[in-house]
Amino acid sequence: MRCVVFGASGYIGGRLVPDLLEAGHQVRVVARDPAKLRDRPWRDDVEVVRGDVLDAESTGRAVADQQVAYYLVHSLHSTDFADQDRRAATNLSAAAGHAGLARIVYLGGLHPDTGELSPHLASRKEVGDIFLAGPADAVVLQAAVILGSGSASFEMLRHLTERLPAMVTPHWVHNRIQPIAIRDVLRYLVGAATFPAGVNRTFDIGGPDVLTYLDMMRRYAVVAGLPRRFVVPVPVLTPWLSAQWVNLVTPVPRSIAVPLIASLIHEVVCQEDDILELVPDPPEGRLHFEQAVELALTRISQYQVSTRWSDAGSPPDPSEPSAADPAWAGGTVYEDRRERHTTAPPEQVWRVVEGIGGEHGWYSFPLAWAVRGWADRVSGGVGLGRGRRDPYRLHTGEALDWWRVEEIEPGHRLLLRAEMKLPGRAWLELSVSPDGDGGTRYRQRAVFHPHGFAGHAYWKLIAPFHDLVFGGMVANVTGAAERRN
């Protein structure tokens, strides 16, 4: 089949594309910023087109000549997410009808049939309803907690359990949940491409176990080899308060924790298993909870996490200034430029640069970075907890602590775009080049485009600490390279 994937830069989409290719399908992926996909291992095996589901014209071009459209897009970070998701789904539904697509495949959220849904679950249900009522057939898969290395649900479960041997929890930890392994989710998604014509409905998908969140935490502890976790449920912790706690204790920021927890206040158990008639279980069966956790932990320990929840970040607005803009482009630009010669060879300095952040730290004043990271988390930002997927390699578009890898030229240049809460836009550029005497010239540039008075005041306030932070980074990066030489 000819399949077009919306959301290929995200957690699910980034894993679905290679599975579709392995199944023999032709794949086109749609990205607002195609450059973000250039380091994906499957990049040369797919057709990449620029497009945005909020733009009807580009959506129409993206689905032209295709048979199946996968919609794996959610506007979690937007305050008007429901309106954006509604517009995007309407655009795709209309484009699918005009192009004569065989079907749309959408991964939504498992939800109860009665009672008031959380805003995010209600929005995901609405998206599915739009597709089902549209001119093309739709397969709407509805899943609860997805277990896999790098998924937001798994990272929340993992960090809550590992970091808190005893915890006070809300009453929803006793609600029943039917989690599903990412491997089984992908199996169903791939299978949906070849469903018979006329299949236009929702399918509940889940694993073989029905557990409470409390059961999941305790079973996770057993698989991970942790002592028994002690949990005291209390009725006063609202979903909002729970999200604040998750925001502080786990890498999952408040913007994502809120919809995750809001979905857990419902009992989310499959009401039917009709999907098995079209995609039967493999001989070994669907993965049980313990198997999914063990597999995820193995992937993490071996640095084989192919995608993470943080992969799907908002692309830069092309109308906004960028780090490449010259000073005369308009507006104030603050910069901190530093460089240093080192006797270490360029490849050795680059290893330090590409390994920066995460468990290796930022080579300057760790306390200041930690305090700034906690301040960002308290204000609802991403903080430093996202870490990095691989301690030694970086790829365009991936998250690195509170930065996003905007550009990387292996062996030479790394450009990071800040995603922490700031009154402006900021970048950090690190570059390596051979020096005349056989050594290396290391250059470092911090760029800040302020927004309003607050932005100017922010830069003036932190400027006195630049020698300590940025100056220390230059000295310590080159020093680390020399010690490895």
TrEMBL record:
It comes from the Bacteria. InterPro entries: ComplexI_NDUFA9_subunit, DUF2867, NAD(P)-bd_dom, NAD(P)-bd_dom_sf, START-like_dom_sf. Pfam families: DUF2867 (PF11066), NAD_binding_10 (PF13460). GO terms for molecular function: protein-containing complex binding. Residues 7-113 form the NAD(P)-binding domain. Residues 308-328 are annotated as: Disordered. Residues 310-328 have a biased composition (Low complexity). This is NAD(P)-dependent oxidoreductase. It comes from Actinocatenispora thailandica.
